[in-house]
Amino acid sequence: MTIRRLTPKDLSAYRAIWAEGLMRVPTAFLFGAEEVRAIPNKDIEKALQTHLTFGAFDEASRIQGFISARRGGPRRMRHMADIGPLYVRDTAQGQGLGRALVEAMLQELARNGVLQAELCVDVENTRAQALYKSMGFHVFGRRPRSVLVDGGPRDDFLMIRALDETDLTRDA
């Protein structure tokens, strides 16, 4: 597998895997499928240029997974980044691809001066929680009704990891 930053040239592959993820695991995404379909290509191309999105590609150059992150906007929040979503195709799961994508993202964020990475994960997604915990993230809160999926409320755990060795668990 090859992991690299996605560019506007990857638009079709990115849209396809994003749509697949929305169909298979709608609770892992903030946007719904209809909302994603309504986003113009030019807006997604701009996001690929301004936000970090990495893709994992197999030997045949087919995308098998992706991860995104957005750095805090105001100067006072530029030390942190929000990670997500992370999605790996079923056929590529169990091969360490999710871990490799998260690690690549964390390394890039640290290289760019980000001090902490944060994410939200559905409280029922124990597999993703285990991955994140094994990579040094810890839960620092729970957001009730974080999203409504098909009209039903879903809670998220809020997770955080320091990228500079600071102990963020001291007050937890």
Explained architecture:
This protein is an alpha+beta fold and about 170 residues long. The protein is built from 5 helices and 7 strands, in the order βαααβββαβαββ. It has one domain (about 1-160): Gcn5-related N-acetyltransferase (GNAT) (Aminopeptidase), CATH 3.40.630.30. The protein has a 7-stranded mixed β-sheet, sandwiched between helices.
SSE inventory with pairings:
Blueprint: E1 2-5, H1 11-24, H2 33-38, H3 41-50, E2 52-57, E3 63-71, E4 80-88, H4 97-111, E5 116-122, H5 126-134, E6 138-149, E7 152-162
Parallel strand pairs: 4-5
Antiparallel strand pairs: 1-2, 2-3, 3-4, 5-7, 6-7
Tally of domains: 1
Structural class: alpha+beta
Output the CATH topology. Aminopeptidase
Show unreliable segments: none
What is the CATH class designation? Alpha Beta
What's the alpha carbon Rg, rounded to whole Å?
A: 16 Å
Helix count, DSSP H or I runs of 4 or more residues: 5
Number of strands: 7
- Give the strand order of the largest sheet, numbering strands 1, 2, ... along the chain: 1-2-3-4-5-7-6
Tell me the overall shape: globular
Organism: Marivita hallyeonensis
InterPro entries: Acyl_CoA_acyltransferase, GNAT_dom
Keywords: Acyltransferase, Transferase
GO molecular function: acyltransferase activity, transferring groups other than amino-acyl groups
